[in-house]
Amino acid sequence: MNKLTLEAAEVLKKILYINIASITPEGEPWNTPVYCAYDSKLNYYWLSWKDNQHSMNVRNNSKVFITSYDSTALAGTGFGVYLKGEAKELKNPKDMLIAITEVYKREKRKPRDVAEFLKKFPRRIYKFTPSQVWVNGDAKIDGNFIDVRTELNLDELREVINK
């Protein structure tokens, strides 16, 4: 297995938060850190207030980009995972149950009732489905350091995550 894929899997297993990059209805960039969990297909789930900016952005434009990385790494030693895909607010109770089971399993707590994420309640459940994945690296141009991105095989990453 590719060394970068193994390293990416370790980051995803270890880090509990993702940054969600989305676009406001006015076309402005927006970035939000959220606590998350993922399933065997690397679909990510999070719980957020339905009126948070990132929640409104996802309802308006499903195209998002997420990152996961260790923010405590020393300068020049960081390794991050970048995922492009689509996000949506879950409305089907069966899908919602899968999502909250993953989130609360990661928290080692009993899941809340799906009804607490519907109708009059303020929070909703969101799902991100990745289509591409990259990791960061470095290279040089004429002796000068540059950041580079290396695309990974998403199916291989899923395979490693599930071992």
Structure explained in plain terms:
The chain has 4 helices and 8 strands; from the N terminus they run H-E-E-E-E-H-E-E-H-E-E-H. It is α+β, with helices and mostly antiparallel strands and 163 residues long. Strands 1, 2, 3, 4, 5, 6, 7 and 8 form an 8-stranded antiparallel β-sheet that branches. The chain is globular and about 60 Å long.
The SSE string, one letter per element, is HEEEEHEEHEEH
Q: By helix and strand content, what is the structural category?
A: alpha+beta
Distance separating the two termini: 12 Å
Residue-averaged pLDDT, rounded?
94
How many discrete structural domains? 1
Please tell me how large the radius of gyration is.
17 Å
Shape: globular
CATH topology: Pnp Oxidase, Chain A
Helical residue percent band: 25-40%
Short description:
By secondary structure, the protein is of the alpha+beta class. It has helices spanning 3-14, 53-60, 93-107, 154-161, and strands at residues 17-23, 29-35, 37-38, 44-49, 63-69, 80-89, 123-141, 144-152.
